Batch of 3 targets.
Target 1
Amino acid sequence: MILRNKDSILNTLILLHESSFNFQLTGSHFFGGAIPGSDVDFYTEDTWATRDFLKKLNFVQLNDGIVYDDRSITYVYRYSPTKGDGCNMAKHIDVQLIHPSYIVVKDMAQKALYRKFGGRGLIGDKQTHNELWNDAMLEAGLRGK
């Protein structure tokens, strides 16, 4: 049984960190530009064990394709605190599950984007972010072969 303290977002982040899975921070908290209440984004390799672990933490699978335009992502799971949990850190946590054949490419793309934008945040709106990621994934995939 997983115990939740008053700030369940913080507790869930600790459980992700202490798990045996490799959750990589991404999004505004990784690249810079996070504001109070920003969601927290991670990615990790998609396995049955990862999915089972996230479900035990009360993450729910989002509908396919509604969050990110990225073919490396097989599923997105979200944890949202229940009403009254007293969360003041973030509105929710999203975990992108990455197809195993793309995980190295995703890592390379994130490192390339960080070298270019790290600490300042990615430029533009969500559409621009998607285009930046897609370009970085393409470039990383070509370099990774």
Target 2
Amino acid sequence: MLLIPGFGILAFSCSKDNDEKRESPGNHRDYSNPPVIIAVDSLNLRVYKIVSLPRSGTPPFTYSIDSLPFDNNPVKDNLRFGSHFVYIKDAAGHCSERFDFAVIPPTINLPPYFSVEMPIPDSITVW
């Protein structure tokens, strides 16, 4: 579920089971070629690109991260550090499996000449 101010609660669904339940028996979708996510590549510190398996799904694709509405841009920026998940939906309405990934903050390595401990002087001379 997703709460959008002014709009109430919207149900987010990108699962085959939920789509099949909404379809009538004579209007069954074919899930033999859904889009497949193979990676979420880092382009910058907090900018990531969703990469799908070539020839999987039917272009054009839309992308959703963390249950936000689908859009047509595979590049997601300003992601917070931590865990995320993404889905791809193709033009035929097929959804990829959920793909989990993490945005990890960079490690800061201080050079040895920076000291973490501050020495306390025995005395202070005032001139």
Target 3
Amino acid sequence: MLYTFLFDGSESDPGMNMTIESVRNMQVEYGALEAQEDTDKELPDMTWSEVKDKVEDGAYVKLAAQYRTAEGEYLPVYSYLYKEMINTDAFIIAEGEDSSSLGKFSGAWFEGRYYNEKNVIEYGTTFEESLEEHNPVLVFRNFKITLPELGEGESYYYSGNWNYHYQISESGVCEGYVPFRYNKESDSWIAAYLSNAIKHKYADGTVENLDKSLYMDQITLTREQVMQMNLDYNRNVNPEEYYSYDGITEPGEWIQDE
């Protein structure tokens, strides 16, 4: 996409500063593009359930789109998807209906890459550049914290999106994807789901909220800490392994780039 028209009259709106020459150059550039040949076979239909079954706990996917860099280079578009479970005790799910949603990232950093509001990876974006727009979400998978030792038959868990109960292992590994959201008052990022309450389930089935003073410092990242974490380490690196939904290969084909 060469231009995004804002229709707000601002200087950054292409409609306010385009010239005959710029339109001509755009037409020449488009005319020089080589379209990929259509596949010689009709690709099968695809359902969201099939996508969720493919990505399962999480995987990169290649989409049927291209991203244009500031230098005019066209790059493939990737995202990251995962099956997000729904607590069927808290939400009514029709019999036979898939009790999961498709998880994705927006305005967030995960594994060294920035995901914009369209849920796709923004190639080359630095962490500092993302801060110019807003304070992005920081997502960590299988985040680990230290909690009091459990007794026999006891367990810890926390409620994520869709009120699904994610377990916390005896070694303190929190299942699922833990988002750290910006807190303006403390100028820090706090693990949203964990700060709501970590549940301590006893052997007899009773459940209590764990004292937050035991772990709040572990789920809080100061701005100084965040700036030292090298969160954009993969900003110029495309995923090497992914499921392809680019409209050319078989939907859901597993690709490993060399």
